[in-house]
Structure formats: C-alpha cells, structure tokens
Design brief:
Blueprint: H1 4-22, H2 32-35, E1 45-47, E2 52-55, E3 60-63, E4 70-72, E5 75-77, H3 85-99, H4 111-114, E6 136-142, E7 149-154, E8 159-165, E9 175-177
Antiparallel strand pairs: 1-2, 2-3, 3-9, 4-5, 6-7, 7-8
Length: about 180
C-alpha cells in the first residue's frame, strides 16, 4: 500500500504531466522571419494592390497593415490606430459605408486562418504582413461571458482570447469576403 505522501506526490506528477502535455511549448518554434525566406513565398496569399491580400483558402481579403498604417515600398508605415472594441467596430462600419464594400473586423474563427501556426514573433508571413506589431488585435467576436469582454488574437502566436476587456485600446485589421 502506498502512503498518503506517496499518493499525493504521484498525483502531482501525473497532473503536471497532463497539464504540460495540453500546452504547446513555443520556445522551440522558429520566428516567421526565418521560415519565409523569399518575397515569392506568400503562403496561400495573393498580394493585391493598395495593401490588400487575398487569403486563397478562405476567400477573405485582409489589410496587410494594421488600420492607421499605410503600405509603402513593401512596408507598413506610420502608427497603428488603437481603439476600444466598440470604436473599432464603428470604424469598420464607417469604412464599409463610405466605400460601399463590406469591410469588417475578422471573426475569432477567421483570425487563426489568416495567421501561421508553424512559427511565431509574429505568427504571420512577413512578406504578406510586413511589420505586423506583436500585440493583441481585436476581432469582431463577442466573448461567451459578460458583456464587458470581447475576443482578440495575440499576433505573437496567433491565439484567440475571448476575455479581453472591450474598453482596452488595441490595433485591428479589416477583412471582407472576396
């Protein structure tokens, strides 16, 4: 028979292993700048004019730079616009109204599709999304919990988090259906 101390130690080891197996260890993942070595490697994107890229698999068109920045000589120039979730949603609605095109924030399920899962820092092809800052970016999705939370994705690793306080000012990208 095992004594209480031995059973507790065994439980702790098993629990720790189970928890660690459920988390991905990103310390060994390469930087996306090292993975994509050529401007020709667009990883499922077609780069269009005016700082827009088409994600071929989903058919979404996405801004290559955060809102507030502009594309110039293959680089994103200027500062990204950081708004609360409500302000970002209103901004996207205003852009859609003024352009007559259905621009919006990406939904929480779309954001990971637009990013890379095999690399980090940020989890994006640098030739499609040059100079993408490492930050939380708003999505158009609401969290499952209280109304004060919304979903964002962390560009460093591409993970979605749905307990982001909606009053925090963060950058965002815009997307539209092709």
């Amino acid at each position: 028979m095992w004594d209480t101390k031995t059973r507790c130690a065994g439980f702790l080891v098993i629990t720790t292993c189970a928890v660690m197996a459920g988390c991905s260890d990103q310390r060994n993942m390469p930087d996306c700048g090292d993975v994509f070595e050529s401007r020709l490697d667009k990883s499922g994107y077609e780069v269009l004019d005016d700082g827009i890229a088409l994600h071929k698999e989903t058919g979404l068109k996405v801004t290559q730079c955060a809102v507030g920045q502009r594309m110039s000589n293959y680089r994103c120039r200027g500062e990204s616009l950081k708004l609360t979730w409500d302000e970002a949603m209103a901004y996207a609605a205003e852009v859609a109204e003024k352009t007559g095109e259905p621009w919006r924030l990406p939904e929480k399920g779309e954001a990971p599709d637009l990013l890379e899962s095999e690399c980090i820092n940020p989890a994006a092809n640098p030739y499609v999304f040059p100079d993408l800052e490492v930050a939380n970016f708003w999505t158009g999705s609401k969290g499952l919990h209280q109304d004060k939370f919304r979903c964002s994705f962390y560009s460093y690793q591409g993970r979605v988090f749905c307990r982001q306080a909606r009053i925090i000012e963060q950058p965002f990208l815009l997307v539209k259906e092709d």
